[in-house]
Fold this sequence. Notes:
Blueprint lengths: L1 H19 L20 H32 L5 H30 L14
Amino acid sequence: MKKFITTIFLISFLLLPAASLALELNYPEFGGYQVELGMDLNRLVAWFYYFIVGIAGLAAFVMLVWGGVQWLTSAGNPGKISEAKDKINSALLGLLIILGSWLILQVINPDLIMLNLPTLP
Length: 121
């Protein structure tokens, strides 16, 4: 129940200002795409993909630094060193998966993140 309430709060916190147009929101540009009022779904999906890849890369970097600091402050305790090594390995694996997804989409076919919606006559 707590997760549900938190999710609803976060969604309303992010969407209500844009829906009411009370604030002029300027979203950052990711992958050459800028969020604008009235933009099509294709560009929104592309922007969201690049946004998620950027956030995931940042999270992997933070976990990598956190594991390094945890290792430095372990004071030779084998249990803490093992936990720090696991955290670093997991962060590197996550970063490899993130970069692998980006590489696959950019090298093989960058149009995979674009939806080709048919237009109505």
